[in-house]
């Protein structure tokens, strides 16, 4: 019989999170056959890509990267996305919201409207095109209230819709990834990570990020308590003053909906120090689209949003 | 790539404690979580502002505080109905520990969500509304929560809440404590911890209450920060194989997470259920070669010979035994009741096999917690002891010793729903 050991120190918080994420990614690849990893070039997806690389080392990833490009992305982020895919030697599939607009499957209320919600349609079209049966993404439960309720292995019906009222029970680490034809799973390996965990991990692992996550000078206007980048897509309104400030992005997404925060942080440690002091949540400080109403994310997710 | 030997994965950083909060409707569970987050700065300015935007006058109570209960209700339908339907996960940290709260719904119809929350937690904080219970017994829902906490092997803290409404009556506290102790004895819950509190006002949550000089224990947060939840681990090694990876030289490495025990190069392992033996040549990860790995670490293992091993098999120490017939505690989680004679899929570790429920030993009823042995069916939220037969052998691990491999789920192959959560108590 086996001997009992004395109690021992437990795995550190960050090591446990890393191991859990690797376990989840390996389970996704074990239970489903046609996956893709959603990779936007943002910090969360950069973390997930790094974790996936660790999960399958010394082999390459057994699935491609997929990005849904709204056409309104920061060029630094797209360059980073392409460079990372090349560096890892992984296949990158890009599908464009612009093409969905041309096909007529996406109709925007206004030409300059945020394309963030429109991503869902293009994403579902890509799933249909490649017959993906699981998508791995970098959503975190601490980001937002609807995400706080989502399972790690989250079922999507044949319309790509999430049904929050009848989620499958998710017991221990025994993930149920079974689906019928036409349905798919969304898999979130860093569900249990906070913004602070992500930054600490990026620092510890030396994960590369697009430059706009760090301090830089940018033309912005102040609007509704947020800083809006002054760009061709997001021109200042009449009466607004353009200021050139030291800023960084806490999240990156569609230019029309993502706002930077004032910051002089040029290193991960400085970002962590700022995050400790901030009394605004990551999305609250930066996302226009979540402020429409409190259930904005839940409604988008029910329509297939990531 | 040069391998530096990594001593182990432990570095003295703060660890994480995962706990659930369970209570009947209106016991003040959401308020307690709101209070924990608020007092530990886990709630930020815009999140409080979003509450005011959404709820207007509703979001402040008479004394001008934010209604902390509104913090945790995430879904539209929950806010409409004013109840919690599904588990919400919340995160906060103190200098001593990181915490994950799984906020489980109170309603009986959502018991399956509490089971989901409990399965990944170490501690259950069970709330009781002191103001409503004086002179009465515990609610059925409290007994159900205690039963689930016991089944899942959680440490139990009983938060006796709304003590302010009893005039901070020690007699009421003692009465509830005595009532719960009886339930704990019936179920076999070891040393539950009791805390008198008023979550709404923060008494004995993050700070000691001036109203309870007779209470000698710490406030809840300090209790959670200092509680020792280290299980006495066995050397018994378990690693369910998730995938076989190949190096450039074609060497096979078995990838998985150590679910219990310790492993070092040179150790002998069995590949279960076949029982083939091999010796560990090296333990590897992206970060290097490991001189030892412990519970919780995701690695890949190179053996000294090629075995016919793949996903679904488990690498184990010599003590492991196979079984095709087990007795298990079961929580039925599906709206579709159990149908006698039907085959379900049983998932243990990375293995999936067919299973039949061969007989019901008893179903536990929730009033006296009695074991009803003549029960003939299993329906949503039933908690039972059953006998199960499997087509292929599974590991005969007991949940009490090795929770990760002693646990399983049953999946309905027709609907793909997760139908039941199981915990192995005996193997034959």
List keywords for this structure.
heterodimer, A: 306 residues, alpha/beta, Rossmann fold, 2 domains, 6-stranded mixed sheet, globular, B: 428 residues, alpha+beta, Elongation Factor Tu (Ef-tu), domain 3, 19% helix, disordered N terminus
Give your account of this protein's structure.
The complex is a heterodimer of chains A (306) and B (428). Chain A has helices at 13-31, 43-56, 75-88, 97-103, 119-130, 195-205, 268-277, 282-286, 296-302; strands at residues 35-38, 65-69, 92-96, 134-136, 153-156, 184-187, 216-223, 226-229, 243-248, 261-262. With 306 residues, chain A is of the alpha/beta class. Chain A folds into 2 domains: 14-196 and 295-302, HUPs (Rossmann fold), CATH 3.40.50.620; 211-290, no CATH class. Chain A has a 6-stranded mixed β-sheet with strand order 3-2-1-4-6-5, sandwiched between helices. Chain A has a 4-stranded antiparallel β-sheet with strand order 8-7-9-10, with no helix packed on it. In chain A, α2 (43-56) links the parallel β1 and β2. In chain A, α1 (13-31) packs across α2. The radius of gyration of chain A is 20 Å and the shape is globular. Chain B is of the alpha+beta class and 428 residues long. Chain B has helices at residues 29-39, 45-55, 76-81, 111-119, 130-133, 140-152, 170-187, 220-226, 403-406, and strands at residues 5-6, 16-23, 88-93, 98-103, 123-129, 155-161, 193-196, 238-246, 252-257, 268-272, 276-285, 288-290, 298-303, 314-316, 322-332, 343-348, 351-364, 371-372, 383-395, 407-411, 418-427. The radius of gyration of chain B is 24 Å and the shape is globular. Residues 1-11 and 57-64 of chain B have low confidence and may be disordered. Chains A and B meet through α1 and α2 of A and α2, α3, β3, α4 and β8 of B.
